[in-house]
Amino acid sequence: MTDDKQIATLPPIEELHNEVVRSPRTGEPRRPAVLLVAAILLQLAVAATAVAYAHHWWLAVHPSSYPTSARLIAWIEPDPGKWLSLTLEAALAAATVLAAGAAGVAGFQAWNGWRWSRWAGLVAVGLVGGYLAITSTWVVPALALTVLGAALLFLPPVARYFHDQDRVRAERPELYRRPERVFYGRLPRFR
What we know:
By secondary structure, the chain is mostly helical.
């Protein structure tokens, strides 16, 4: 009884290619759609912050509505046109730039693939929330857009994109190597 028993084997496991899938157009890792939505939301938050500031500015221009143009103005109650009111307007303008700038930087740098943009998004949420506290409810849409955009930066597809960008940035291009010998003049084959 010579039964030729063969060992049952599975086919070989395919080799795992741990390469970054790149866009043929740009050569960068492919950006997920979630990242596009997050970047757009954060840029829309910048626009919404600018609209809220424009609304405040419109109310501040008219003396009758100046005392209620922003919470900060209502709390301190400065006289319109005096140095304190002008200082408060400069502070509100600076707060606008800071809050809108944080959201814009977070969205732009997330699009560029920098992992720290997640934390910049959280900082932007805090700054836009603080801006809401000192201005008016016109900032609520900006805060909502910032919260949504920052939350999307923590989703797994965006984390994979950041990881792929880190790997692409870690690649070093081949350095230039000088040729051993440089031939000047007519090549021998053309003599």
